[in-house]
């Protein structure tokens, strides 16, 4: 029996083998992500073009940092990041200024809720997941950093040393993380009310040992991750642990249904790793910006053979280029037929 997209999504993320694996891919719409209507229109058109099984909505990479007061020049991008004009954490004292924010009082959050509403209307039968960052990741953005080892945000020249603050202002760090987590919890509830089916929850590079020790991660990320993830009913919560040394097994006990990681990156396990969550991976995300579809086909078939018999979401291992070709995206879609 052929399942509907929602039936297939629900069954797969319940850990049961469906009629076939699910397939999807995503990228940023850099010229269409500054307004809810534009993002919705671009997303709907893209999903219809390839008939993806489910959708990872891709808002601006900085939208959650904007919700807490960071400012960016949306006319000047470096890759997927607009240039930072101001980060709100400049001094240790700034940590105490971070407080919970109501969605209706936040233009960036209200904008994304409107986008989800419009996408839901345009794709009534396709499972939708919203991209969110962990509170620790958001805090790094607010301090002018990207959530990768030794990387700062485009436009951020002298970011504050968060590692030092974890020692000298530990309670203030926790207060800020708690405020961010409570805001995200309420945002999740608002997303659910407008028809979202799941979250694509990015811890990005925060599992990397050069960024945080395991002890630091467990103190400053894990409890706040659980606050946010537990706000959504079970069934569609996917966690993305990005980059090298992403340690997907670390998240086996998280309140999630699927784990996304890059099996090709340094220090990461391949698709045969034993996880008690559904695997979300499969194809190198850097091979889509070409018209040569052969590597995509080969990697997709290899991934499918490695997880044969398991529930599986076949996807690129991270966002593909905004300039990904029709040939490669079509090849990915056709690989499950």
What does this structure look like?
- With 337 residues, the protein is an alpha/beta fold.
- It has a single domain, classed as TIM Barrel, CATH 3.20.20.
- The longest helix has 24 residues, at 170-193.
- The relative contact order is 0.14.
- A hairpin with a 2-residue loop joins strand 3 and strand 4.
- The chain is globular.
- The model has no long low-confidence stretch (mean pLDDT 96).
- Helix 5 (135-142) packs across helix 7 and helix 10 (294-306) runs parallel beside helix 11 (326-334).
- The strands form 2 sheets. Strands 1-10-9-8-7-6-5-2 form an 8-stranded parallel β-sheet. A two-stranded antiparallel sheet has the order 3-4.
- 36% of the residues lie in helices and 15% in strands.
CATH hierarchy class name? Alpha Beta
Biggest sheet layout: 8 strands, parallel
Number of helices: 11
Shape summary:
globular
Q: What is the strand content?
A: 15-25%
**Total individual domains:** 1
Number of strands: 10
Average pLDDT metric:
96
Question: Pairing-aware structural class of the strands and helices?
Answer: alpha/beta
Helix content: 25-40%
Physical arrangement of strands within the biggest beta sheet:
1-10-9-8-7-6-5-2
Separation of termini? 15 Å
What CATH calls the topology is TIM Barrel
Written as H for each helix and E for each strand, in order along the chain, the element string is HEHEHEEHEHHHEHHEEEHEH
Oligomeric grouping of the chains? single chain
| Unreliable residue runs | none
Q: Give Rg in angstroms.
A: 19 Å
CATH architecture: Alpha-Beta Barrel
